[in-house]
Amino acid sequence: MSGHNAPDKVWRMVRYDAAIIGAGANGLAAAAALAAAGLRTIVLERGERPGGRCVTREFHPGFRASPFCDEIAVVPAEIARALDLARHGAIFTATPPAPQLLNAIVARGLADSAAPPKRGWFGGAPLSAAWPGQSAFDPEAPELPLIGTPIGSGMTMGGLGTLGEALAKAASAAGAEIRSGLEVTDIRHAKHRASGARLADGTEIEARAVISTLDLRRTFFSLFAWKDLPRSVIERVTAWRPAGSTARLLVALAAAPQRLDDNPAPDFAAWRAGIIPDDPPVRLRCVSAQDPSLAPAGQAVVTATIGCIPHHLFDGAWTNEKRNLLRDKVLKRIGGEVLASTLIVPPDIEEALGTTEGDLNGGEIAPDQMFALRGFGDWPGGRTPIEGLYLGGRSSALGPFASCAAGIAAARSLMADRA
């Protein structure tokens, strides 16, 4: 049984080999890999349709854009071929080849997932050897460049929605079940082992293992009671820091823009103070110039990615007045007749995608939250101190570097541990 939202309720009584929380790129890739290996797999998505950030929406009649970002980290060629994304409709725009160092990082992460850790789940273990590029964060070894999020793009024609749809088709074709409109409220567990998921309507899904593509805080502090978590887990998750939030403005123009005035200068002081920057950092892109299908002929779509935008304002909630203030600051940088615009602020992203404070990165990109230190350093391949629970999203080691790779790593870890 596959597809979205089948009306019958038989699936509620089935015991699955794997339940995946979140139908974004990582969750769908993990589902495709597990189902192709013969494991009965279900994907649980709180939104109306799968895709996560990989969606395309019409924000004004005839004008479309990807609401949360224009591009994602590149999908490794090996994974794209294995999932047959081209056959399922994902046509990637031209991107430069992935740097050799990035390929080495992804290969190392996938290799870590192939073999289970050689110790008990709560036993001590030294951190694994340094990852390729990890010395970039060592002040005594500055010979390598700072990695951050990779260059190159997982941008697809038709917006990111075509990639989300292709991944959903790949997972369904492999035999995975994708269920939208279902919010997971608890991860079921017994004796420190994950045993399924509980939904908001009270339904319980039995599963031998669970992969969460939510961030670290959402996974443990939203889906577990604190009293049920080992102290080491509470300390680790408490120390986890979300990345700074961004906002997005989607703009419909009557004609191609006369000018686009980027402003790359960050204003961290305003962000920390919880105020809207006077001159916020903005990256502007005329996405319809590269993909004319996003706008009517002769017209244009411009997207603005706005940095240093606080999730919590010092003087209260995001009111219409404050939204209009930010919108006006950005629109003055775009030359042309504006037909319509849609502003998406961090609380909107948090509500739509279930990300802590609207953070799209799965945690701050910092030395103590990178490489083997991302997630749980002693448990490689997305494993966690809760047996049978895996991190397959951007909070895991491969999350910042390549799309779909974290989900594939978690799936491989699950299969290795089963074996």
Query: How far apart are the first and last residues' alpha carbons, in Å?
Result: 25 Å
Assign the structural class, choosing from mainly alpha, mainly beta, alpha/beta, alpha+beta, or little secondary structure: alpha/beta
Strand order of the largest sheet: 1-7-4-3-11-18
* Net shape: globular
Summed over residues and divided by their number, the pLDDT gives a mean of: 87
Share in β-strands: 15-25%
> Would you count the extended β strands for me?
18
Give the helix tally.
11
- The whole-angstrom Rg is 21 Å
- DSSP helix fraction: 25-40%
The helix/strand order is EEEHEEEHHHEEEEEHHEEHEHEHEEHEH
- Which blocks of ≥5 consecutive residues have pLDDT under 50? 118-127, 139-152
Biggest sheet: strands, sense, closure? 6 strands, parallel
What topology emerges from the helices and strands here?
Blueprint: E1 3-4, E2 15-16, E3 18-21, H1 25-36, E4 41-45, E5 57-60, E6 63-65, H2 77-83, H3 100-114, H4 161-174, E7 177-180, E8 184-190, E9 193-199, E10 204-207, E11 210-212, H5 216-222, H6 231-239, E12 247-253, E13 259-260, H7 268-273, E14 282-286, H8 287-290, E15 300-306, H9 320-331, E16 334-335, E17 338-344, H10 346-353, E18 389-391, H11 405-418
Parallel strand pairs: 1-7, 2-10, 3-4, 3-11, 4-7, 11-18
Antiparallel strand pairs: 5-6, 8-9, 9-10, 12-15, 12-17, 13-16, 14-15
Helix pairs in contact: 1-4, 1-11, 3-11, 5-6
Notes on the structure:
It is built from 11 helices and 18 strands. The protein is of the alpha/beta class. The strands form 5 sheets. Strands 1-7-4-3-11-18 form a 6-stranded parallel beta sheet, covered by helices on one side. A 4-stranded mixed beta sheet has the order 2-10-9-8, with no helix packed on it. A 4-stranded antiparallel beta sheet has the order 14-15-12-17. The longest helix is centred in the N-terminal third of the chain and has 15 residues, at 100-114. Mean pLDDT is 87; it is low at 118-127 and 139-152.
